[in-house]
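Course exercise 7: structure representation. Students receive a sequence record and must write out the corresponding structure in token form. The form below is the worked example handed out in class, using Nudix hydrolase 1 (150 residues). Read each field label carefully; the graders check that inputs and outputs are placed in the correct fields and that the protein name is recorded exactly as given.

STUDENT ID: A-19
EXERCISE PROTEIN: Nudix hydrolase 1
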Amino acid sequence: MGNETVVVAETAGSIKVAVVVCLLRGQNVLLGRRRSSLGDSTFSLPSGHLEFGESFEECAARELKEETDLDIGKIELLTVTNNLFLDEAKPSQYVAVFMRAVLADPRQEPQNIEPKFCDGWGWYEWDNLPKPLFWPLENAVQDGFNPFPT
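STUDENT ANSWER:
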């Protein structure tokens, strides 16, 4: 019984989990302009792939630190979306886990740690977001998503 073989069926695309950080400061949210094959030159929230064994909170804190050098204070789950990228060379599906967070130190400013992937970070009012938004974020906004507590 201990020598089982697991066979994984090949699919047309891949499924990945991305953790998306809605980092709030006052009435502003942190966004960066993407430099990526997915959504190049669009504005997006800090995000990254969930690693094996990682909690959503751990992934959010790690990705935010890797991308901006910022530290999370409080964090909580907001929503989950299912995003299909069918028009890409390699079709994929992303399950996006949106987390709301605040800074451990509100005086911290974001640094652009990964300039190959982001043109820079800025704070934007939710009611006046820059354009164009990365389409999964644009769809969420159009569907009424708002990371601010009501």
